[in-house]
Every structure is written in structure tokens, then in C-alpha cells.
Design brief:
By secondary structure, the protein is an alpha/beta fold. It has eleven helices and seven strands.
């Protein structure tokens, strides 16, 4: 079952990434809306800036970008901060797209095929960056064990996390969380789960903030985008998972509106 889930996630991103780029841009993550007037591209970049500031990422840092997508954030960190970036993803198509998109850079990131459930990448990193990826993992405990070994002393793990609210009733889980998990191919953890992984691996949580109110507008925009019938026809030609993904956009918005779904930023330090 775990293998099947990983395979389904890989197939989804292999299929959908070129279309995501056309619809959303080079950063395949939520936008951070400071004024509410930003374009989706500006808001997506705002999120990167926010995370960089909170994690205090310095120029020239060695960064592991876990779930690097099509390379947008890896390129940003390389260009803006001169970071030495290694990006990993389970999607060969995303590797191809990220490599092509950063070919013009003098300080090019390196992109590798790797599964975050069982990290095989080697090296020592000042920063491990994971934006909206750990909810896809079936083996988060093993991720934290391997990730903590990759962090240099004083290094930081920066995560933008999809979370479910603590202590939800079975009814609330079924109504609001299950549709998100099934459509987005995720299993939503609570903040308590992450705190447990952090403590078990001798790490220290130095910053946490719930920024749900700043990012929830993303799904209003997404729902406008998916009114395009061309996207639904494309989904119908490929897989039931793609159709379920599009249908779950409304579930994401409902999760934000009810407070059952949360979007948190964690910065964790290795002593």
C-alpha cells in the first residue's frame, strides 16, 4: 500500500507538473498574501521570502530542497542568496523541468531523484527546506531520522506544513479531512506529531507560526482556475486520481474556512 501511494504520487506529478506550471507558475506551493492584492506569482514568492527570513537562511548556505517540484525555489535560493542547492523529487518529469529551467544560471542547483520516505542523498547541509511535502510521506519518522543526520551542527530544518487541527471528532475528520487526504494524496499530521519527531531526534523547535489566514486565498484562486473545462477534459483523459485532485480544491477551501485544516511554519535547529 505504501509503495502504491508513492507510485501514485509520482505518476500524478509526472502527469500534472507541466500543466501546473502553465496555470500557476514556477512555484508550486501556496501564496502568502500580505495585502490580499498580490498576484498569485507575487504571493508565491512572498512565501519563500517569509520562510527565508524566519529560518534566517544566510547567503551561500548549503540547502537540501526536499520535494523541489520544478525547481522554482531552488533557483530562487541559488540566484538571490548564492546558496549551494540540491533539490530532490520522486518525479523524473520534474527533474527534467527543473534542470531545463535552471540551465541558464551560473550557480545552478543540482537535482536528484530521491524518495523522502527513505532519503538516500548524502552530504552535510546548513538548511533542509521542505515546503508542503511531508504530508505526502508514509514514513515521516524515518524522514526525521535521516534528515537530522544530514543537518550540520547549528543547521536548520524549515518546513511549511499541511496540518489537521488537534482533537478533531470522527465526524469532522470524515467530513473535512478525508476528502483532502484522498484528493491530494496526503495523510495529514497534527502539530503534536511533528513535535514528537523533533524531540525524538534531539532537535529543537525554535519557531512556529500558523499562517493559515495569510495563505488560504490560494484556494479561492485555484477554484477560479479550475473552472476551465479544458483542465477537466485533460483529467478525464488520464486518471481518476487527477479528477479527485481537482475536486478536492473545494475541500481545501472548506478545511481552511472551518479551521480543521491548518498551515503551519516550523523552524527546527540541530544543536
Amino acid at each position: 500500500m505504501q509503495h502504491n501511494l508513492t507510485e501514485a504520487i509520482q505518476e500524478h506529478y509526472d502527469l500534472a507538473s507541466p500543466y501546473y506550471e502553465k496555470l500557476w507558475g514556477k512555484h508550486l506551493h501556496h501564496g502568502y498574501y500580505q495585502t490580499g492584492e498580490e498576484s498569485k506569482e507575487e504571493a508565491a514568492e512572498n512565501l519563500i521570502k517569509f520562510l527565508v527570513e524566519r529560518a534566517e537562511i544566510r547567503e551561500g548556505a548549503r540547502v537540501l530542497d526536499v520535494g523541489c517540484g520544478i525547481g522554482g525555489t531552488s533557483a530562487w535560493l541559488s540566484e538571490r542568496l548564492g546558496c549551494e542547492v540540491t533539490g530532490i523529487t520522486i518525479s523524473p518529469i520534474q527533474i527534467e523541468m527543473a534542470t531545463e529551467a535552471t540551465r541558464h544560471l551560473t550557480n545552478r542547483p543540482t537535482f536528484l531523484l530521491d524518495d523522502a520516505n527513505n532519503l538516500s542523498v548524502t552530504g552535510s547541509f546548513d538548511v533542509v527546506w521542505a515546503v508542503e511535502v511531508l504530508s505526502h510521506l508514509y514514513n515521516r519518522g524515518e524522514f526525521f531520522r535521516r534528515m537530522s543526520r544530514l543537518l550540520a551542527p547549528g543547521g536548520r530544518f524549515c518546513e511549511a506544513a499541511w496540518l489537521k487541527e488537534e482533537g478533531l471528532s470522527v465526524r469532522a475528520e470524515d467530513k473535512y479531512i478525508r476528502p483532502i487526504e484522498e484528493g491530494m494524496l496526503v495523510s495529514l499530521p497534527t502539530l503534536s506529531e511533528y513535535k514528537r519527531h523533533i524531540e525524538e531526534n534531539g532537535l529543537r523547535l525554535v519557531y512556529y507560526e500558523d499562517i493559515s489566514s495569510r495563505v488560504s486565498k490560494t484556494w479561492d484562486i485555484c477554484l477560479d482556475i479550475v473552472r476551465d473545462r479544458t483542465l477537466w477534459r485533460l483529467a478525464g483523459q488520464h486518471s481518476k486520481e487527477f479528477i479527485a485532485f481537482l475536486k478536492s480544491f473545494k475541500a481545501m477551501r472548506n478545511g481552511f474556512r472551518t479551521g480543521t485544516f491548518r498551515y503551519g511554519v516550523l523552524v527546527v535547529e540541530k544543536p
